[in-house]
Amino acid sequence: MLFADSMSLLWLSYYGLSLLVVLAIYFALAWLPRLPRLVITWGVAGVMWMPANFRLPLVEEGEFYTGWAPSAMVAAVAFFEHSASGLRNGLLWAILGIALGACLGIALWWWRRPMPVEEAPARRQSVEEPQPVRRREPVIR
After folding, report:
1. Do 74 and 80 touch, CB atoms closer than 8 A?
2. What is the per-residue pLDDT across 97-116, written as a single tens digit (0 to 9) for each?
3. Are 41 and 25 in contact, with CB atoms under 8 Å apart?
4. Contacts with 73 (C-beta within 8 Å, 6 or more apart), sequence order
5. Taking Cα atoms as reference points, which of 58, 87, 63 lies closest to residue 73?
6. Which helix (H) or strand (E) holds 55?
7. pTM for the model
8. CB hemisphere CA count around 62 (13 angstroms)
């Protein structure tokens, strides 16, 4: 179900809002050349969109809640909870997301790069080629 407190709606709204953030980053970096702009934009998209699993202790002793969240959020929560294993897991997935996003940005730049124009050498007019005679229009006097 896609409504009424569903996890699907939460992820869908997160990805929708993060898409707006990615577009805003791309247009905010318009002063940069195309390659660094794509690498930075897709690197940020990669860190926002890379999921990581997490495990949080519940109130009852020995019980845990596990799930998936964006890797940046997993790393941030683990940092504030002083959880080294959670921080390691979140940061590794975040770094992997940055690397994959940057590679995707480079691939997009490579795919859409302007092709070099090969200039044809100027034709040499040789003696064999006669010069075109300019046509003269008849004149009535």
Report:
1. no
2. 999 999 999 999 999 887 77
3. yes
4. 90
5. 87
6. strand 51-57
7. 0.71
8. 0
